[in-house]
């Protein structure tokens, strides 16, 4: 009985470890900016999709934050999106997170936009503000919308 329980437990862990989406896109991060003692990176992913016969890309903006200070801090952030050639910036989302002292908040999704596939490059930009600090500069990241 104990052996069967061990086998079933291992099988359950294996099932939990398998990603739910085999076509998940990689997350690429842009250069760092800072606000107070928090370093911020804007990150982007582009995941393939299809709606009927139309090929799409789900463009997702993320934020990554690293606190180099001795105290935990709350960080507010915003992300914007645009098509590089001639597009205007559109807000994808905003939020707030708690970054522990000396800790890192891994890429956290801020917002996303579904776009029709086209031969264009897209980019996101993210900025953040730690409590008591000014807004950071912009951290940008880009991708070709229909790359495989």
Report on the structure:
It contains 1 helix and 8 strands, in the order αββββββββ. It has one helix at residues 2-17, and strands at 28-35, 38-51, 54-67, 73-83, 90-99, 104-116, 121-130, 139-144. The protein is elongated and about 55 Å long. Strand 7 (121-130) and strand 8 form a beta hairpin. The protein is mainly β. The longest helix has 16 residues, at 2-17.
Structural class: mainly beta
* Strand portion: over 45%
Please report the total strand number as a whole number.
8
**What value does the Rg take, in angstroms?**
19 Å
What is the averaged pLDDT score?
82
User: How do the strands line up in the largest sheet?
Assistant: 1-2-3-6
Helix percent reads 10-25%
> How many separate helices?
1
What secondary-structure arrangement, pairings included, does this model have?
Layout: H1 2-17, E1 28-35, E2 38-51, E3 54-67, E4 73-83, E5 90-99, E6 104-116, E7 121-130, E8 139-144
Question: Keywords, please?
Answer:
148 residues; mainly beta
Concise description?
With 148 residues, the chain is mainly beta. It has one helix at residues 2-17; strands spanning 28-35, 38-51, 54-67, 73-83, 90-99, 104-116, 121-130, 139-144. It is elongated.
